[in-house]
Amino acid sequence: AGLVIAEMALAVVLLTGAGLLIRSFIALTQVDPGFQPGGAMSVRVTLQGAEYQNGDQVRARVDHLVERLRRLPGVTAIGVGSILPLGGLGALNDFPVDGGPGPPPNLNQEIAVASASPDYFKAIGAPLKRGRLFNDLVQPKSPPVALLNEAGAPRWFPREDPLGRRVVSGGATREVVGIVGDVLQRTPGQPAAAQMFLPYTQRTGRSVRIIVRAEGDPLALAPSVREQIRALDPNLPLAEATPLQETVTRSVARPRFYMSLLTLFAAVALALSATGIFGVMS
Question: Across residues 6-22, what is the average pLDDT?
Fold first, then answer.
């Protein structure tokens, strides 16, 4: 009797743990990431060499590349950014508010900063909540502007509208012109952190992520995208084209592994318990 009770207890514990982990994983996969991964892919391009010694040269090459990619059949949006959704926070900068109290002293005074082109949010499928997005009129010498996500707006402006307010970032005073929806930066299990987006023309980097949104399968355009990049500069190193849906899948790879492992152990325990109980009772 004691052996039967022990076998049943161990099997129930493992099955209960596996069931809870499966339920948590299902809830994790149902979290809204804040963007639309279907129908979009990303390609990382690193501009290196003597032709890219300053920001003007980098911006000119990126602009030419974007124009070429827009002409491809089936392309609906081309975005350029310094990071991808679920790809990390990016750089962290101090974030003083011009003439404002800022966040409470017990909160981190830094904010994640990323660069984005005018069509970046359209390409990843993230919504604009208030205000406006960047446009092609924003140039390096234009008045500095910025966007905040929904997580950052109430943190630095808890009792006032952030639109039109001025913040200091990278030594420049910028006007907040829009609020965008929260896009998860790390994993679906972690809430979106406060983030600020700056125009790519005013915060230019040599390593860019190009997001291509297409009407059909975006990977069908991958050879054409590589061809256009090589036509501009055959010496540019290219990373593999990655669907944004695969980025979402990778973000839950570790929880999926743990769930599969515990489920396997629970199934083995159930089989051993059933065999043992049958033998004892016989």
Answer: 80
